[in-house]
Amino acid sequence: MLKQPELKGSTFTLSVLHLVDDNFAAAADVLAEKVTQAPGFFEGAPVVADVQRLSQCPDISALKRCLQATGMILIGLTGVTHNHTRQLALDSGLAVLKSSKQSRIADPIQTPAKVVTAPVRSGQQIYAKNADLVILNHVSAGAEVIADGSIHIYGVLRGRAIAGACGQKQARIYCQNLQSELLSVAGSYWLNDKIPPEHVERPAMVSLNQESLQIDPLTL
């Protein structure tokens, strides 16, 4: 019988660097002094950066470089309060650790809806970051419209529509004529062959219902 990998809990000691501002070079100098005092202990040691007191999203690449110069390795962030910072950390290959005192990551500030008046043509991609997306025209096959909030299409939807791109499960897709190649809300998606025939070429509202998409008629 082949042996299978096992996932087990364990306990490790991690050093936490509590950042007070964006002067990462100054923080690296403090760490470098620690390494000089005990090189055998700190060299190659994993470090978690606490970013709770920073006024804006940290430059993760710059932070990584500063720590690497000391011989220590940045493995994650803690004190993360916004989804944007969380996503940047994950995209950079870092873990996001939640302290026992931290309640939850706050939602990013919602910005005004992004409004597009021209047709969205094949090959185009439109993204509304932290906002709803309003299309006052058609979305062609091969086009893609994405929003962190809801999507409103006052025309034919033939391309791909992705609402709740950052995980907002309350997001919805509204369109006047549903012929979409792909529909997605908060990561759950349907291809066009799964859209019930009674909703095709009709006004529709797409929402998330218990991790599955739901389509309802849109009353005009």
UniProtKB/TrEMBL annotation:
Cell cycle is among the record's keywords: yes
Superkingdom assignment: Bacteria
Entry keyword annotation includes Plastid: no
Subunit structure: Interacts with MinD and FtsZ.
NCBIfam families xref list: minC (TIGR01222)
Family, as annotated: Belongs to the MinC family.
Function summary: Cell division inhibitor that blocks the formation of polar Z ring septums. Rapidly oscillates between the poles of the cell to destabilize FtsZ filaments that have formed before they mature into polar Z rings. Prevents FtsZ polymerization.
The protein's name: Probable septum site-determining protein MinC
Protein species of origin: Salinivibrio costicola subsp. alcaliphilus
Lineage start: Bacteria, Pseudomonadati, Pseudomonadota, Gammaproteobacteria, Vibrionales
Gene that produces this protein: minC
